[in-house]
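Shape is hard to put into words, and the shape of a protein is harder than most. The fold becomes a row of whole numbers, each drawn from a learned catalogue of backbone shapes. The outcome of that step, for a single protein, is printed below.
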Amino acid sequence: MNPLRSLMITMARRKLTSRNIDSETENPLEEWIHMKVRQTVKDEKEFRRVLGRSSLTEVSRADLRQYQMFKFRKLMRYVDENSVYYHKLMADNKLVPESFLEFEDLIKFPLTEPASLAEEPFHFLCVSQSKVMRAFSTSGTSGLKKRLFYTQSDVLNIVDAISAALKTVGLRDNETLQIMFPAVTAWDPSLMLEGACKVAGLNAIVCSSIDIDVQVEMMRKNETRMMIGLTSFIYRITMLARDKYDLRSLGIKAIICSSEPLSEAMREELESAWGCKALTQYGMTEMGLATAIECIVQDGIHVDEADYLVECIDPVTGEQLPDRKDGELVWTSLNMSGSPLLRYRSFDLSSYISPPCGCGFRTVGKIGKPKGRSDYTTKFGFGEKVYPYLFDEAIGSVHGVISHQVVIDRPTYRDRLTVTVEFNGDLEAAGRQLQEKIMAIPEVQSSMENDLMEPLVINVVAVRPEFIPTKRTLVDNRAQYDH
């Protein structure tokens, strides 16, 4: 390694709180969050005044909420001084930090729309260009191209969070993480993850090959104990490799599925093949990529609540919803300095789950596994709403499915579903099973019975040699259809 780069990494490591987590700590992510809260007590006189204490030995749920609201008020002052967009927003709505004392007060702050960020990203930039370490452009799942700016402190904080999260799901300093994202996008998340692991002192290798022999050989050679990657990519490798190799013998401790939804049908297949837990990770580029990670209980995804404040709201009324009530997730990046966002709409449909958790977390909350996006819903039949996950679960439950896409169109007065499935096995038998599974979906069954949908069109194709990532598994091609 270049000596200068080695020195820079050594200096960066000294700034990582996660390096101070004891290897025997039961819940590293929660301890990391507590460490940041305690450091804020030490550094911020105003926060000590709010808490009415000069130090914190044990961090309670109430302390964490107070910390988040303190950070929210501090962020309001920061963006008022440095962001063109938020300065105008706060002036137009006569918003002052002193009015935001309790979590329930957040609804007084207007939601930030992705379209506003896409239209003028520099109006959100809070630092000079000379202080920008990384700039990312993303269209994400919304289709809107947005540009985000990260400072050095932002990037180091992301690295710190990734390290704490990986330790929480069981990765130890002497073990190897295999990073598995197909190298087909303009921005490769593998680079960020590998760099984060290097700075954090964790072992990581990148393998983007679709060749199952190459993937397995890399695991054996490097004694891989955990893998992380694009959900559909890991699933594809698994489905093609399990008949050739004894995957359980490789000693994988956990699989982290990222960037795409993990259906329960897919989870079952992965866990059966590898003999370990398959966990999901949630993140958005707008929030710094590493936002939340699932624990072994698999009943929600733990949020980095030191850096993010998440709400679940009714997308129509804006009302904050109670625990486990499905709505839209809204995020605030509490510690970002480059492009901080307050009450940013994700359009992801999920719920908030308060602690404690069966895994041992006492103070840190979770989000439910996202079920889809409010801007990805569609309707057919009698106007019943459907989401991609309805088809993901049904189609994924057919053993041998590698990938799929459902297309809705309307060639006549009735809707038509065309389902294309990539399959490894008996194609004819697969067609019959898929027909049965899809027809069992209540919304499809009702539409068929009421003559509102044409007969299903199911195309089953053999496994393709190349990997073609599909962002949308449900596509609605009906013109001017009211969603």
